[in-house]
Amino acid sequence: MCLKYINLMSIQKFASFKNSSVGSLLIDDIIYEIGVQIFAYFETPHDMTIDELESIGRYIIFLDLNNSINKLDHHIFYNLVSLNIGFNIRITDASISKLTNLTSLHLNKNKLITDESVSKLSNLTSLGLDDNKVITDASVSKLTNLTSLNIRFGNSLLTDESVSMLTNLISLNLYYDIITDASIGKLTNLTSLNLNRSELITDESIIKLTNLTSLYIRVINSLITDRSVSTLTNLTSLYVHDTNSITDESVSKLTNLTSLNVNDNDFVTDVSVSKLTNLTSLCVSGDHLITDVSVSKLTNLTSLYVSGDHLINDVSVSKLTKLNLDPFI
Hints:
The chain is α/β, with parallel strands linked by helices. Among the domains are: 1-80, no CATH class; 191-329, Leucine-rich repeat, LRR (right-handed beta-alpha superhelix) (Alpha-Beta Horseshoe), CATH 3.80.10.10. It has helices spanning 31-43, 50-57, 93-96, 115-118, 137-140, 160-163, 181-184, 203-206, 226-229, 248-251, 270-273, 292-295, 314-317; strands at 5-7, 21-22, 25-26, 62-65, 82-85, 104-108, 126-130, 148-152, 171-175, 192-196, 214-218, 237-241, 259-269, 281-289, 303-306. The strands form 2 sheets. It has a 13-stranded parallel sheet with strand order 1-4-5-6-7-8-9-10-11-12-13-14-15. A two-stranded antiparallel ribbon has the order 2-3. Strand 11 (214-218), helix 9 (226-229) and strand 12 (237-241) form a beta-alpha-beta unit.
């Protein structure tokens, strides 16, 4: 029986393992015990023998570290493919550089892992950098197998120089950064793009991303307008927040949409929404001009969220027979 996931922050009991043993440890159905023992290894190495650790480590392929851990022995965790490292972890390049099987790495405010080790992780397909001020173009430009890149909470040192080389990307999440059209326009394999406060990206690059199926825009002074969005007819999910540069003109053409989220936008109205009959999910909040007139026509809706006004009420909701009204599902 393979141990698939251990979260060392919450050390939860995920599953039941019967008739399994690890050295002097009986796994049975208590993952909590395993979590405690592995945590103890990093803080007090003598709590477990190397043989015991190796027997456990070879089963671990996903690891979430959010405690004060200072070592990852690659001889023990040699099957590790996914690693999430919190901001207070003391793991350094010495450990990371040897985990060459990694395909997913997420660094949260981490200051000890640098280009030196990341540049050696050529098998990475997913990289997350939250408030990271250490990783630069020097390493990321070499990670050409990346299909997912998440840069959140700004202050990233990445520029167009490296991002433009990641042409295999299918998912990109940007938050407060200096990435521009110069690189975005080259990422034509993107199917998901999340732009949060990214004001340097315009129609010039977006219009080239015809494979997009999901687009999230939360940019007050957005330079992304109807001109480009109207061409993204493969979109199935659209999120528009704090921007009035996207209007009925483009949204009315996105008839493949199944999910629409409109927040504080006065220019996406009943005129376009009434045409989106494939919608299964609709979320409207803040200032908006979407009313019963259009919602009553969205008979495929299974999910509806309304906040901020009284423009949508029982008149339309009563006609939506597919709505899931159970808040726990």
